[in-house]
Amino acid sequence: MIRDIPHNNHWDLILHLPCVCLLRETRKGVFNPSLPQMFQQRISIKPTDFISWLFSVLPPDCPPLGLESLNVDDSQIQASSYQRSGLGPHRGRLNIQSGIEDGDLYDGAWCAEFKDKHQWLEVDAIHLTLFTGVILQGRNSIWSWDWVETYKVQLSNDSVSWKTCMNGTQEAIFEGNQNPETPVLGLLPVPTVARFIRINPQTWYFNGTVCLRAEILGCRVPDPDDIYSSAPEPGSKDALDFRHHNYKEMRKLMKSVTEECPDITRVYTIGKSYTGLKLYVMEISDNPGKHELGEPEFRYVAGMHGNEALGRELVLNLMQYMCKEYKKGNQRIVRLVTETRIHLLPSMNPDGYEVAYEKGSELAGWAEGRYSFEGIDLNHNFPDLNNIMWDAQETAADPSKVSNHYIPIPEYYTKEDAMVAPETRAVISWMQDIPFVLSANLHGGELVVTYPFDCTRDWAPQENTPTADDAFFRWLATVYASTNLVMVDPDRRICHYEDFQGHNNIINGGAWHTVPGSMNDFSYLHTNCFEVTVELSCDKFPHVSELPIEWENNKESLLVYMEQVHRGIKGVVKDKITKQGIADAVIKVEDHDHDIRSAADGDYWRLLNPGEYKVVVWAEGYFPSMRRCHVGMEPNPTICDFTLTKTPIQRLKEIRAKGGKVPQDLQLRLRALRLRKLRASTKAINRRRESQQLQRRRARSSGGWRI
């Protein structure tokens, strides 16, 4: 959606197009080589019929051809010249990012070899296309500043004969960029039908060179002579609301879903953004509003970075889809709804999204709306518990005794003047209130799934930093990546400069780039919840026309990932006498240096790969309990319940606190316990005396005492 385009004027411009002039141009040979016979007949017989017909079959807003989304193949982009391979025409894509070093194969723009007005970047649309505009951007680079300030547009049907876009009787000069990153839209004075389009720079930054990134706007013209025209357009058969939703529209859509499926949905808020926009969550469950014993809690979080809009729309698609499919009796969805409590937060950063939304999908650039209203990157805003844990391990006499779970939030972070966004505080409180088991954080701008730890231990910019559950995290990441239709495509082009296909499209967060204070790491170290980050698409803010395709690319991944919440073991930790659940019982799996705790009702869930595990459970005031639990290959949890017995001392404390009389059996047990302690201490004293006597005898036999 290009919000800056004067939508209502698009077709006014076309309707003012002098059809006789268009016909004359076909006779000159500019458009004639591939103009369908049907078009020539329509124009020559009755030009107004052709315009009316074109108006009826094409959308009012022409979408991007897809340089940014990679729908345009590298082979479709040519250039007059280029400085080197890393600055070739295939790099002239809107929002493409460069590597840290200039001079590699993945630089941040197309850059011409020569600094003159004869340079051009050419795009072949493959089909006849009604071109309506060009979006231009400068070079992405840490070290160089390059952009085009003015340019011309040329059109052709054969890539041989070219016609420069005119503004009245003069060649049109389009305004370009004034900085490297802000996209600038140039609308053609008259939308024009052609197959090829060229951007011809005229002036550029005085201290730079001819470099640009671009997107082309245009509608494919129906052509009965094209053998490929009858091929079905990619999209989705699901009847969902495929469009970008601003705050009010999102709220309205969520309300409509609850009205359609009131028995399985509930909308609630977890807090507000800095400007007061509510953080809405959709709950999907067969008993909304209530935690059910033994039923795991799952969450999807999207929109942490406001300009990464695809995750927001996918979450909105997901809630619509689950509602509709549940009503149809889709057994897979019914099982998810009845066995899982699902929470969907479509927009963690609504303030940032509104900024990006106002710019539009192609004009928001790479960073517009990324941060909160206060300028905070929310994915660096959570407490850094990693280094607290690692520092404690390094200074402890016995590192194994250092807590590896439920690490408390440091005091400085909780102060009112701490630089913590209200959105972050709201999500932390949400995490603490609900015993989440599994989560995914939906981002955009790449095609990869990352897993903790995100923060490197030695502050290296890139270093593999695994958790104690590295094998299971790699499984979770693989589950999503291996079912994503784009990630599994072996022929897909890399997004920017990193090729994740060699890693099966998954990577440890620290191995990619260090992120202290990430939500993933905090979730793992402060709660029971395992969380990964999914980078959904090369394009952070896809055009609305791409949304049905992106839904199909991710639908299976979103569903199968939710189903992983049922892997591993689960159960209830109960008191032997009262049969009541025990909260905050510690569940420890042998050879896994990361414990979890039971929820308020005593139920717990421990995500594990298939295998045989020794599990020990203990709680304050209880004797520990151990049992072996087997986890199978199927995505169904193994039930491992535990019954704990209170220690006599704990029972005595509770009885005395209530002012009651100590039962005879407890008195006997306490007496026996004291006797055991007495015997143990007596044995220890005797062993110490015997050791001292032995040392004296050895000293005498060796010739006397030594000082």
From TrEMBL:
It is found in: Secreted. GO terms for cellular component: extracellular space. The keyword Protease applies. Keywords: Carboxypeptidase, Disulfide bond, Glycoprotein, Hydrolase, Metal-binding, Metalloprotease, Protease, Secreted, Signal, Zinc. Residues 243-565 form the Peptidase M14 domain. Residues 686-707 are annotated as: Disordered. GO terms for molecular function: metallocarboxypeptidase activity; zinc ion binding. Its cofactor is Zn(2+). PROSITE patterns: CARBOXYPEPT_ZN_1 (PS00132), CARBOXYPEPT_ZN_2 (PS00133), FA58C_1 (PS01285), FA58C_2 (PS01286), FA58C_3 (PS50022), PEPTIDASE_M14 (PS52035). Residues 60-219 form the F5/8 type C domain. Its main location: secreted. It comes from the Eukaryota. GO terms for biological process: proteolysis. The active site is at residue 535. Belongs to the peptidase M14 family. This is Carboxypeptidase X, M14 family member 1. It comes from Amphiprion percula.
